[in-house]
């Protein structure tokens, strides 16, 4: 068996704490240390009897460190990631890659210059359901892809907004949730050519949006609509349907529909709809359930993949340019919502 990778986690908030648990579950990694200044980090350090550093410079002086997960607020991604990459330490960087495009490009350049792996934390790509959908699309079962429909409606508790950065630029549902959907739909359907969007903050009244509708046109000519809100009580979002994370009780609904000339697929429920003979709305439409085994190990799968990346066995499934792509589309959505114009990517 290969060597276990010693991973440190920088930023032990909501997401960092999940990574910590995933490292402990993975057979390919050890928890090296944690880096944070919060009281919660002190508690975690005592609970897991693990080294605690108060900053990344102090971490860089420690021994036997193989790789780092950066899960700090978006505005700190550049500073933290660059200091690690300069020391040739591979990084799993939480999404979005950064809070602006210039900084994202800088991170990518420094990773390339130092020939050091950078994996972006779009963990849904490590879900076996998503791999299955990709295979179904590739197999031609859907025919030519014509359109897709994505719903991301969920209700965030008021407590969630106590962190100021969640109500400041980039902290709304477009920056937090939709970037995952952008990454996933780009992975499944290819490059996005145009976007157009509308946003509103009329319910929560924060500076950031609480609701948005977005239209995409892909290079292939396929269309997609995406409807997102953090202030609607509803069961239809990837979070509440995929069963990836136990903090979101599962609803057994679907959030994605992708349709083509021969059939359509809804997922995470993995229901494939098709006609047996003639394709016509006057005929009975059939469905087949694909495996639909909920994959709740996505974060562990991601750590396993990261460990293989660190050992240079595989290339990152989600690289810096994928991170930049979703950030560019996010920026175009924001611009379109402001100007009312259709934006070319
Ligand atoms: N992949 C996902 O599904 C997902 C989900 C939520 C958040 N995220 C991403 O994870 C990152 C963190 O989000 P969160 O919701 O966990 O935020 P959070 O506010 O809950 O946690 C951030 C943590 O970083 C720590 N921190 C702040 N400054 C620091 C510094 N200089 N050095 C070390 N630690 C520092 C804070 O004390 C806090 O513990 C963001 O980039 C966010 O977009 C990803």
Key words describing this protein structure:
345 residues, alpha/beta, Rossmann fold, Dihydrodipicolinate Reductase, domain 2, 2 domains, 9-stranded mixed sheet, 6-stranded parallel sheet, 10 helices, 15 strands, binds nicotinamide-adenine-dinucleotide
Class of secondary structure makeup: alpha/beta
The CATH class assignment of the largest domain is Alpha Beta
- What is the H-and-E element order? EHEHEHEHEHEHEHEEEHEEEEHHE
Overall geometric form = globular
Total helix count? Answer: 10
Low-confidence spans: none
| Subunit organisation of the chains | single chain
The percent of residues in helical segments reads: 25-40%
**Beta-strand fraction estimate:** 15-25%
CATH superfamily of the largest domain: Dihydrodipicolinate Reductase, domain 2
